[in-house]
Batch of 4 targets.
Target 1
Amino acid sequence: MPANLFPAPVEIFRFLPEIILALGGTLIMVLEALTGDRQPKNALGHVSLAALFAALVAAVAVHGSPGPAFSSMLLVDGFATFFRVVVIAVGILTVFSSYRYLSREGANTGEYYALVLFSVAGQGVMVTANELIMIFIGLEISSIATYVMAGLLRDDARANESALKYFLLGSFATAFLLYGIAFLYGATGTTNLTAIRETVLRADGPSPLLLGLAAALMLVGFGFKISSAPFQMWAPDVYQGAPTPVTAFMSAGPKAAAFAIFLRVFVTIFEPIGDRWEPIIWVFALASMTIGNFAALTQSNVKRMLAYSSIAHAGYVLVALCARSDIGTAAAMFYLAAYALMNVGAFAVVAYICGKGEKYVGIDDLAGLGSRRPAVAAALTIFLCSLIGVPLTGGFFGKFYIFKAALESKLIWLTVLGLLNSAVAAYYYLRMLVVMYMREPGEATENLEPLPAGLRTALFTSAAGVLLLGIFPSRILEFAVQSAKLFGR
Amino acid sequence: MSFLGWFLLTPLAAFLLLLLLPREQEKTIRVAALALSLAIFGLSLGLLAGEPRETDLAWIPELNIRYHVAVDGLSIWLILLTTLLTPISILISWKYIDRRVKEFHAFLLLLEFGVLGVFAAMDLFLFYVYWEVGLVPMYFLIGIWGHDRRIYAAVKFFLYTMAASVLMLASIIYVYQRAGTFDYPAILAMLASGKLTFTSLEQTLLFLAFFVAFAVKVPLFPLHTWLPDAHVEAPTAGSVMLASVLLKLGTYGILRFCLPMFPTAARENAGWIAVLAIVGIVYGALVAMVQPNVKKLVAYSSVSHLGFVILGIFSFNQQGFDGAVYQMLNHGVSTGALFMLVGYLYERRHSLEIQDYGGVSTPAPWLSTVFLITTLASIGLPTLNNFVGEFLVLQGAAQADFRWAVFAATGVILSACYMLWMYQRTFYGETPEKVTHQMTDLNGREWAAILPLLALMVWMGTAAETFLPRISAANRLILQQTTVNVPFNVQTPAPRPDVAAKEIADAR
């Protein structure tokens, strides 16, 4: 590879979204130091929004000049652009739903907004990475920022537990991933995905044993990051303890980015040994769906329930991965986009209801929301319908597309069991609808403040997005299908 | 987009329009909902005349999913029944629904949107979408405005239907995999020409997946347990829509999709299904007989009546099919009317227990007369509607297997027992003090709601030729499609070029 220390302008351009995000984050930290303690920090939130929107525009603009950057360390293709847009959108929605929550908790600091930007920048690096070291760096940038966000409320014991658990187990998982990377480097002599793939496909390629070992170690790392069973243990505690907007963020953004690298690595370099890992992913997928859904049935805390539901949804996406086809990859992409919207939306509602100190996070606290705040209830209904998989929502179409891909790959049992699982899931989502519409208002909903502007934007944008993905999925689907083809095979 | 394509979107437009109205203006909302649903009914009458009655547009081109809707003799009357019952449901809820008026009417229109779509969808994906969309508003109608155990009933209703239909979704995807299209006429054409064949095992499994989804909705014994709960707990309008329209989705689906797509499996399984249908007829009637709750009685009578429909379908002959479809309409009219009248009683006496009534005919003679006519229609008195349907079904069943007809006919006798006994205990005898106080006769609004149905009972009983020719024509086609081992040609619109190309590619 030619050592070119001075990247061409176009290469820098391809990295522009992450540059904007990193600069924005740094700017906020400087501004925070300059403004002093007593100032309201919403302005810093606005700066972070500006940076995120600029990054969004840049990400779309960069799509116009696809290709590698920085000695092929990064690769801007349709797949990368798709996930870049998803993670930036998650960042935007998170910031919108954070303002009121943070000022209520007295934690409206600039560092929070800077951390969101850094985390999103890390995820941007992850999804564009074409190189194992870049994957690792991106993952670390994203993860460390998220660990800090989880522990944002310093005086809250649960938040501390959450952050510590997330940090310890997360580092442990990253270590596995790094081991896998090391083995892979040892086996192939390179860290570039394209080069590794070429080596693997050669007749005198690395021994399947080494390759399998690397794949297994990386699978552990990825499995943790996407909270798939049997590495899902951390998710309920962490999701429950973290501040709600942070939970929204980490259940969508880092997860989508982790899935992006998971897909990229497994569908490109480990594709030749696909027959070996497919049964493992099959088990992971089924276990995630089943454990997630059945555990969610008995939860009484909304955040914990949504945590288990997010484990189940990771299982659905794994079904798509298990299909090992371009359609499967496209299905996973589409589903993750829909999932990000509906999940962030659902958590945004929780952030609205929960009150100071997250007093009202039980399912019963939603009682009477339907009559007190019909618009919020309607939005939550849309998200829940999407999580159940009712037609005309993005969740339904995504699920449909995933199981279509699975059936195409002859995964009949996985399809049948997965679909039955989604019928089980309907039960616990319905419980929320029941409480919301069919119970008399309780303490939590009696004294709700008017819906703040930021939350309103987050809620209705995600609801509109969920419906759009469900009713007119064509454009996004087409993009996903094309991007999935570009990549790997 | 042709008239039909636009027409099917009108309930959705009405739903959105209603959402825009301020929630405090309850009167405006009621009037608007009534006017809109009447307008939709008026438009639907246009379907009787206007041609062409088909719309076929690309919806999600990547997957070849189309907004393909069409109306034929099988669906036209069910569509008209739906559009007629929606304004009637709004009328009967005028006083009954007094809280969250806006949501109630909005959900009713959303329900109409889903149901009409199911009856018209000619694309399997579109069909599934409509099928599930109708589920959500009904869930809320039961769960918010129902009686005491409404939440249990609503959740049970939702989960039964949902669990049963996910396997149908898997089957739809499987059929798509094999056929390369969701377009139903194209699939039928491929089946007819032999380009698409299913092995015996495939047929059986696919048939069962579709059939169970539909059978839960019908409901066929022993999958009926959600129905009495849902009916008893639902508000009157919910019960009317549930009985008259939603139950028909199941029988319609069987006739429209199960039989033509999987004819061999359908015929092979006809035996036990017919037996279950007969068990349902007799069991429903016997359980109805011992019910102390009048709404539950009518609910179990539905199980019995729908058994006739299933029996007719699985007789596999023209009379059976015609009778089944006619019975679907009859049940919609007469059981819908029964639920309305029970609702009238409830609004006055605030009780559904038969023992709380007695001698109602003295204070409310017109109500009693109307109830009597409806009761007689329901038990199949000649010159009223149910007689025609039941007669055709029994004739069809007798042709298929005489024993079926014998056992099913006991259901007719039993229905006379439980209905007349209920009528006697409610309307005749001593008039308790409370009944005299509370029972007033029908008012203008109630007359307006019930009269169209009474007229239909007489009309359908005496002039079946208004309805039957279209039904028979559609059924003839379906019967032809289910003829096994005989080469048959299906008259369907020519497949579009893109589908044809895909067909050739997929032909094996």
Target 2
Amino acid sequence: MTQQEFRTVQGGRIDRDRPLRFRFDGRDYTGYAGDTLASALLANGVHRTSTSIKLGRPRGIFAAGAEEPNALVQVEAPFPEPMLTATTVELYDGLVARGLGGQGRLATDPDPARYDAVHTHCDVLVVGAGPAGLAAASVAAASGARVVVVDDRSEPGGSLLGTREAKALDWVASVAADLHANPEVRLLTRTSAFGYYDDNYVVAVERRTNHLGASAPAHLSRERIWRIRARRVVLATGAHERSLAFDDNDRPGIMLAGAARTYVNRYGVLPGRRAVVLTTNDSAYAAALDLLDAGVAIAVIADLRPSVSPLWTERLADRGVEVLAGYGVERVVGEERVSSVVLAGGREFEADLLLVSGGWNPVGALYSQAGGKLRYDADLGSFVPDGCREAVAVAGSANGTYGLAGCLAEGTGAGRAAVEATGFAAGTGRELPAADESPVTPPAHTWVLPGDETVQFVDLQRDVTVAEIRRATGTGMRSVEHVKRYTTAGTAHDQGKTSGVLTSGVVAHLLGVDVGDLGTTTFRPPYAPVSFAALAGRDRGALHDPIRVTALHAWHQANGALFENVGQWQRPWYYPRDGEDLHAAVLRECRAAREGVATMDASTLGKIDVQGPDAAVLLDRLYTNLMSSLKVGSIRYGVMCRPDGMIFDDGTVIRLAEDRFLVTTTTGNAAGVLDWMEDFLQTEWPDLRVHCTSVTEQWATIALVGPRSREVLGTLAPDLAVDNDSFPFMTWRDTTVAGLAARVCRISFSGELAYELNVNWWDALALWEAVLAAGAPLGITTYGTETMHVLRAEKGYPIIGQDTDGTVTPQDLGMDWIVSKKKPDFIGKRSFARADTGRPDRKHLVGLLPDDGETLLPEGAHLVEMESLPEPPVPMLGHVTSSYHSAALGRPFALALIKGGRDRIGQRVYAPLGDVLVPVTITGPVLYDPEGKRRDG
Amino acid sequence: MAEQTMIRRSPLAPAADRLAGVGSATGGAVTLAEVPFLTQLNLRLDPTGPAAEAVAAELGVALPTGPGSASAGEVTVLWLGPDEWLVVGAPGTEGELEARLRSAVGDAHASVVDVSAQRTTLLLGGARARDLLALGCALDLHPRSFGTGDCAQTLLARAQVVLVGREAGEFWLLVRASFAAYLVDWLVDASTEFTSTELTAG
């Protein structure tokens, strides 16, 4: 075990009393609480973390935050997680990780952790808790407004955490304490805002317990998605330092200057012993001074500017450090790790560290996602915000304001403006810390240094070099979007945080155009990688989609039903007894319905109460047949079409009173039909005085079916005259069944004598148990949807959505009789006059009998005319829509949609199944009791 | 009818223990219980017409004309839409209340539909009730924007609910009977967060 030889003697925001053990690439190390995996590796002298994906070059830790392009790791324990950046993984005891050259591996075991999502609303959302963000939050919070502050680091402070600004850090602590104490404020650390959508809807991911490793409490979600709706947003997202393109600029030991400063100050880590600094701007000088103070020797500062800041030069000279103006790096020596750096002109400096600063990029990703425009500021040498349609302000270095005093002032102003815009009087925030600022010498605008373009890297993760970008521009590409897609620069996990603007700069350099005219590539969510587990949240397993159940569901479960999903509903499919399979159980259930008595839970049918003086007019317009002539007390079957004449839904209509009907819909389409009715009432026929109310769950419905169903009903409903004359087919009666207020409808979906018993949901179980008890002496049998389908198919009753698919008219189903010739209009009527709906070769619903009397055709099977298949394309006649074994017929049968099918009755056609063509004979769709003799018992 | 009431089964009767368990597991931070069999009548009429006035006179409270609710005695009127309300009353009063409303509107165009069994009601309470709802509801439930008497039709997780702000920071969740079991599954799962006070601030 190594001894953290690169740890400073003191300082940093780590807890030296809490050592943590971890393993990286098979070796054991220790770090401290407060470390990231990257800082702990550097403390142990480990720079190289991976091998590049395309070229196999050694790569090391390059940055100190989410912008890291190189140091991808796979966490192996306690739970596998691929493609994390070592710079953002907080160290915990027992962490096991390895470096990744690109792709990682997903866990094969289910993730035991919880993930969830939460909604929140606020007056002001501040993204970023650096100096600008905290200043904004402090003012906003003091006003009484609801404020949410999100920051992706483990503690607030932003760039200040990487400095030794003691007074400013005290201010950070006071503001953070204020925010935590304010009940209207939520300060979310470890939270990355990754998406900015319309109307200030910002989505963030909070890593709540990742940093606790195996000791994370199980009842808390590991990661949480925050869906934040903010009236105003302040973006204080800071800036990322960028690199420069020079020879071998990818070697381990080469690091952004600001990152090195953060490692020294925040983590108490020496990123090396002796450093060369290459810079285009003043910021690297402050880094160099902090490194010097920590004990890192600075070999030389190579500044690309011909004239450099006298102030900074003097400060460095006082420490014996030479500043070379107008010098760049010619080459880097050392493959596994920098060993020396050769400057232009040939002077070679021994060093194990090369600090680079190519300037700073304001982090404009969220602003850009929000529709904000970016403008190139030639003085700053970076893209800055330039107007946005959302209620958003940008403050601090995200706005190109790099000095501390400027950031604090801008943050305060943005916070004040935001709360005032939401109607609050701005309060007084914490008194700002004093910040003395050195005068700034303008940066150099250099992207590429002279050298070998094939080893000058632009995107480290994607191994994209200046040479590759030259190849792209050489093919004629002029847009950075095209270059990005051609070279893949900026498409890795980091989305070009350090390389994107550099890519634009290199393209500009190669084309000899202004980088401001080129712009940047488009920023899209997510700003930083988000795990799919977090996005899924609780919407997985049983909670993925609601399961709708009837009042009898528990009974069905307790009595061995297997279930079928119908829309969101779960319906009993069949009730196997003593090892029966589907086939055996359904034959038994069918026989009971055809020969004795059987019962089914039909509660899932959609039900809509239609009331008002114009209720009959509405139904006449919605259904193809006439409903206004229906008598109170009677029931009529009806079909609804869309304006194109294709069937949309079917069901029964019960007339409860002159001005009141109860409409039933198919199980899966109840909400759709109600929406359909409301749509027409509100937009097309607002003059109609009708109200529609869903009552699907008000009523439970039990189907009582079979030649002996009348006996069972008679026992249960002593007040009801059940004989055929008193209670004829397609009528309904309100009565008492089993002591319960009930509505009994004489309708049949099987062709048998049948009733539907309706009681309110609360009484369903009492009725069901009474029906089973009353029917027990007759051997009453419960049946499920499969038997229901067989029974109706034997009668040729179509299921809308199974035997139809949105291209089928009532006439195609052979239901010409249900389309009124008299009504002045109804939805779909006009389409029945179209030539296409009158074509003789439209597909008709017909019956099919396999000639061998044994083959069960698969639903969806195609049908062809010829005995053996010709060369493709094979002309198709149609397809099987329903197919079952029939107990009543003693053989399998099917329904099918076949071109001109009604004119082919009696003909033989073929179903290609695998290598054989199964001969089948076309019949009429009604295969059982075509005379309808069984309806009345 | 006493006998009939005995055998009635509310949609969440089988879940009573699980609901009560949430209160004990969270130390009362979240409490849940079914309020079964409430009378619920769906009322649709023109809010500017004579029927609206007649109903208001009969109930002793004006029909709310925007999102919210109004109460008179045991009857609470929830606004569901510009011409739609849910009149909620004590269990067992649906017949009498429907008759009163029908007689009040007289010949005016209005619909009154008994939907008492269509939805069941959950009473949600406890100091973390709002935090629980925020895990599945996109509405702003801060007391400043959703307080006592406020009402909304919204989604909680993936179930449609009528959400009503009650006294003392409690809520009614009216949910369709077929979705009730799913919603309880979701609520019990979501309450896991509040089974310990450790690290749950915020």
Target 3
Amino acid sequence: MTPPASPAASPAAQLPATPRLASAIAAGDISAREALDACLQRIAASDLRVNAFTGHTFERARREADAVDAMRSAGAVLPPLAGVPYAVKNLFDVQGEVTLAGSKVNQKNAAASHDAFLVTQMQRAGAVLVGMLNMDEYAYGFTTENTHFGPTRNPHKLSCTAGGSSGGSGAAVAAGQVGVALASDTNGSIRVPSSFCGVWGLKPTFGRLSRRGSYPFVHSIDHLGPLADSVEGLALAYDALQSPDPIDPGCHAKRVQPINAVRSSGIKGLRIARLSGYFDAYSTPAAARASAQAAAALNATATTLWPDAALARAAAFITTASEGGRLHLADLRTQMQDFEPLSVDRFLAGALQPAAWYLRAQQFRRVYRERVLALFQDWDVLIAPATPLSAPEIGAQWLDINGEQYPCRPSIGLLTQPISYSGCPVVTAPMWPGSNGELPIGVQLIAAPWREDLAVRAAQVLQDSGVAHLKSVNL
Amino acid sequence: MTDSDVLNYVKATARLLEIPLDEARASAVALQLGRTLVMAGQLEAFSLPMHEEMSEIFCPAEFPAADPEPEAL
């Protein structure tokens, strides 16, 4: 193995990609403390421009890194992510830190007494937590234009949005600040920043990972998952995060189903198709090119239709508004002025929605589930763009999709919302369709519930073929 | 339903839920709710038999009893 460059060679040098870094630490080529120091230097050198972080846990990180180095010195076998720096969207509880969820309102809350379940899982895997990441307030947005903490900027073009609501997570990985970041996805909040920032993301099956210790948005749709700098890093993190959790009523997984071991199994025998219809209608030419490039690399010549995509998007929109609005009703009554100006009207509208709309959406969801499951009788992996276009400029009010104008902030999720409402797992692959100044557009690799293994196998093929990858940034 | 109807609904339900809204805020909220109204209409037009129950704590599919056979991959 080629040893990683010395972190001291350049104060802002990027660390090697996650799997290579983990191997280097395990082999003793670099200590966890050295890796952490390089990570912190990178953050210091870049985050004034990117604004991915809202808080740091550097002292904790030093303790965790030193514990890894002590284990190695003692001859212990290191866990899979030993010494790998990572960060979390600031809706995860981190012991001793206030869980902001991107808000001003939460700043008065007490600090978390325990880590979130998934933070504990990462710690068990040896990962080193360096801080908390920016997001849209209460996860209600697709752009991370956060008035309280400032917008997170896209590392590939600082005038553009990083996507959201997990924009800090996408930007931190794209900027080389960390190799892995944890995030949430209700309507696309892992997949959109993955798409706009050009990194890998995994929205697991709904109910796969415990959400205990994370700040909720929409209980019936919230997912948690990782973003990473490589398919290997994504799989390592996802496997580390898995564990049944009987205390979380939304955690349906009964056992761990690792994917890293099957990641390189190839796609021979898999039935792969590209989604057309609704997904073509809401794709700009660049997004369509990204999807076609992925299909070509996966030898997917067929197209198929996702059932009731427009209705599912409508139902997801209504469910989100109603549950999200209700969740914050008490604070909306008493401190509306402290809410994010860009989303407070949507929270209010959701709180006022007729119950009949919400109940109709939930009734539809059962029927929808059966139609989606039926589709996967015929297919193993389905391909679709993650976003209709590449990252818009910060402050954009409207999106132009094939000549039609759509309100920017709620419409970025047009292609992700139908999928997450079905609960299906999705790997987002960073594609570079070559338009709009080389900004990336992600492609969704969608599998049936509980079949993350199939999506990650397709992802590995895309990475190996060279069409899906990260690009370095100059910051 | 007219824009004015939506605005009146917003003002009435906000009072019911004790959410203080000034005129400008009520109009902004009505704009958002009007967009949702269009989507609610789409769902309403979808044929759903009376006996269809709502989703429970949503589970996308039953968790598999066994892992996939390697041969089947």
Target 4
Amino acid sequence: MKILVVEDETKTAAYLRKGLTENGFAVDVAATGVDGLHCASEGDYQLVILDVLLPERDGWSVLSEIRKQGKHTPVLFLTARDSVQDKVKGLQLGADDYLVKPFAFSELLARIRALLRRGPARNVEEICVGDLVIDTVRHKATRNGDALDLTPKEFGLLTLLARHSGEVLSRTTIAETIWDINFDTDTNVIDVHVRRLRSKLDDPFPRKLLHTVRGVGYILEERG
Amino acid sequence: MSKQGIPRPKGWTLATRLTIWYAISAFLLVILATGFLYWALVSNLNREDDQFLSDEVHVLRVLLADWPTSSAAVNREINSEWVTRQYAQVFARILDSRGQALIASRGMSTKFPPQRFPSATNSSTGLPRGMDMRSSTGERFRALATRVSVDSPSHREYTIQIALNRSREEDALSKYRWDLGIVLSVMLFLCVGFGYEIARRGISPVKKISHIAARIGSATLHERIPQAGLPAELASLAATFNAMLDRLEESFARLSRFSADIAHELRTPVTNLRGEIEVMLAKPRSSQEYRQLFDSSLEEVNRLSRIVDSLLFLARAESLQVQLRTETTDAGREIRSLHDFYEAACGQAEVTLTCHAPEGLTAEIDRTLFQRAVGNVIENAMAHTPKGGSVSVVAAANNGRLTVQVSDTGCGIPEADLARVFEPFYRVDSCRSTPSRGLGLGLSIVRSIMKLHGGTVEISSAVGQGTTALLTFPTHPLLRKPQITNS
């Protein structure tokens, strides 16, 4: 998977390259709008991450030029500008998503994965993580054959984490997906929910599946 | 602000305009008055001269009754009596009905050739009016030609041409005109001078106000324009101005307090970050320790990031730059989601959270901002309610308004704090054993959201009993006060 990052801020470009590379992507970086446009036109990328304020040529004009060339590479805008008008303008020009600085890297990763997945998420009937088996049709979860007694929300939370097993999910994403709560809260509300789930999912078992990534969010995976 | 900073307005100053108007109107009045007096004088003189001439005509007429016997008497009258006078020199000529001169004063024919004399009028109609004319020698005369008829012993007609030398009168009048000219030019200067003085005195309070206003800057916002001694119109202007200064001073103070608060709030996480990182970098550490540093740093940075986001939202909302994305929102459903969301945290804090929202409670509002406002108020209630307490959320519709009331059985807010709870970063001490470290921006954001919706938020509280927050949203955008949205 090749990703082009067009970003003039050196530090941002450096950690994006590092973070994305470590998550299994091949990353090229362009520092100006003109370079970015050249790379996007010539190279074969699955995704372009585009800053709006760039030297020589701004992100909007780069995007419209790419689209004019008939390329449909997904483009994710990355910018410090977050007014609704700016978002609308970006999306009208053919951007696929929009992320405002400062953003959580896990959030960026989740968006990139969502864009690259192309099409609806896999709706499998059975999800397995280690000895955890989730039956999404009958709304039942078992560990090592033992049924877990979960409330509907807990089951939803567990399913969300399991579907993205191996990915860190931010509290914001969890609140949005499970409770349809669309603002960032300063309280530990999500942590309490996760703790409750953990008490049923992990406490009775020696091998822990649900892990906290401090300052980022939660991840469900089998660790050795 | 310096004087140079204010561009000089184009056009004439008010003082100049007023001076010009005063001067022109006063001077016009003076001209009208003197003009009228001069006209009256001249017409009086003319009438007197005409009367004088008609008297003389009368004398001739009497003498003509005996013509030609009286020719010697006429001759004596016009040549010895009239022409030789020093002051009222009169020249005359008598013509018969065929226009032949019967007799004339000496010099009459050179001064007034017969054809140059105005034509005669009939003497019967009142006082005959003379005419001003110049003689061939250039002197000014009042001339009168009149037909007289004599019936006895037989009907005869004569034309009497008679002229009064008025050079002396003209000299006097011309001197008078000259005097008037001098008076008028002096008056012109006086009018301008007095006009300027009146304008200057009238304008001086305005200048004073302008002078004080020019002196007021951000550091001297407490200065006010003294209203004592100002005329009524300007006193009300000064009062308006002072009220504006009050508002400016108030918002200025709030802004600078806000900036200071922001700096203070940002200082804590930045200090933590800097200190932790410096200490960690001072010596080689295990990777475990580095990991802890990064974890802790990330938490601080997240906090900074949330402060920045919230401040940006507040700033935008304050300048009404946030665009509401209104949609038909089922308020009951949103409140039940919030209940599900917060229930676990409440349970852990041993606080009961209850919600009452009727079905079909809908409103045209921004769903996300509604969640945020109600959520913030619930979080606040939770944070100030000790173990065993309860928080209840009640939503209702009445009169085109959607109200959400959040009451808690917490420790309450002291009267003194109540007015300030909406100020950014203002925190009331928590009575909980483990106070949560919020940003202190929650209620400010609630107030901004309510303002954007054209709604209100009210908080009432009794210390020791609890606090109630009441959010009121108009259910329809049309019920909202008009608001400016920047595009």
